[in-house]
Amino acid sequence: MANSENKADPGSASLQRDIQQRQDQADRQRQGGGESKSKEPVQTTDHTYPGTPMPSQHLEKPGLEADMQQKPEFLATDYVGSGKLAGMAALITGGDSGIGRAVAVLYAREGADVAIVYLEEDQDAEDTKRYVEAEGQTCLLLRGDVRDPSFCRDAAQQAHERFGRLDILVNNAAFQEHAEKLTDLTEDRFDLTMKTNVYGYFHMAKAVLPYLKRGASIINTGSVTGLEGSSHLLDYSTTKGAIHAFTKSLASNLLEQGIRVNAVAPGPVWTPLNPADASPEKIARFGADTDMKRPAQPQELSPAYVFLAAPSCSSYISGIVLPITGSVGG
Predict the structure, then answer these.
(1) What is the pTM of this model?
(2) How many CB atoms lie within 10 A of CB 255?
(3) pLDDT in tens, 232-267
(4) Is the previous residue joined to 53 through a cis bond, with omega within 30 degrees of 0?
(5) How many domains does the chain have?
(6) Are the C-beta atoms of residues 325 and 89 closer than 8 Å to each other?
(7) Would residue 20 count as lying in a domain?
(8) What is the pLDDT of residues 53-82, one digit of tens each?
């Protein structure tokens, strides 16, 4: 009786072979040009976002959004403000274009005044100021280099004097330049990336801290490259990994003061940063390797910065790195 109970069902092996044969046939059909995964960009809203090929364009650094053939989408016209940041004031580095511009617009829509730090892109900064003011808020432009701690202190002081308060810091300014080999990276070049991307965040956080009160927040822009690495962005990936660790450490350091610190880790986003880095040929395929087969537009990132800044949304969240990468599971 025991022996018969241990025997497999007589039809089981036959059923397994039948399933195998059907799957093998389906696999052969796909390999032979039958069914295949679509290469079209994935759309998850009624709005259709552009996919590859993106415009084959190379921008001179630091890259002007005004010069981009295909302009990034940042206005988030479907996003309705509800006063989540009413009466608050924000300082955004790299706020003249790309993600920074999109965040500035939504912060203004949610009721915050905005100070924008930028390097030298005067035209982009003036454009962003007009968009912020169109939302009914005040915009202060601060031109300078975040590598300079004295400039960062001056920027924080000017913003505080203009608005009478500072509630939000968005560290977003960055330098990125690809390198095929480790030997292409000079010490000067590595130093520039580190001083802009890591030291700049450190200088700005330290500069605004005297003005931040309970309920304030710092949001750092990390990157999927800081989570996964990138063979051609060795120095940039290193800084983004450091930013993620800086975020978690600073969150612990400031928690008892009631100041939250978080990060957003974007995947490929259509901003001037990338056409000012990669070749036109590579830019044409920008974002195609994500599961969504397209880059994000800045307006797909900016609501996350609202969420992390608004006490009404995220008062119990600090020290996270939020991946927004266009791929399943981040």
Answers:
(1) 0.84
(2) 13
(3) 889 999 999 999 999 999 999 999 999 999 999 999
(4) yes
(5) 1
(6) no
(7) no
(8) 766 667 667 766 666 666 778 789 999 999
Spell out the residues 6+ positions from residue 117 whose beta carbon is closer than 8 angstroms to its own: 91, 92, 93, 94, 95, 142, 143, 144, 146, 155, 173, 204
Query: What is the average pLDDT value for the chain, to the nearest integer?
Result: 88
How far is it, in rounded angstroms, from Cα 165 to Cα 213?
Answer: 9
Closest CA to 201 of 250, 158, 161, 129: 250
Name the residues annotated as catalytic.
236
Helix axes 122-134, 98-109, angle to 10 degrees: 20
Contacts of 149 (CB under 8 A, 6+ apart): 203, 206, 207
> Is pLDDT larger for residue 231 or for residue 194?
194
Residue 131 lies in a domain: yes
Most confidently predicted of 42-51, 67-76, 225-234, 313-322 = 313-322
pLDDT of residue 133: 98
**Structural domain range at position 277:** 82-324
Residue 45 lies in a domain: no
In a domain, 38, yes or no: no
Residues 6+ apart with CB under 8 A from 103: 92, 95, 170, 172, 301, 302, 305, 306
User: For position 245, which CATH number holds?
Assistant: 3.40.50.720
DSSP code of residue 199: I
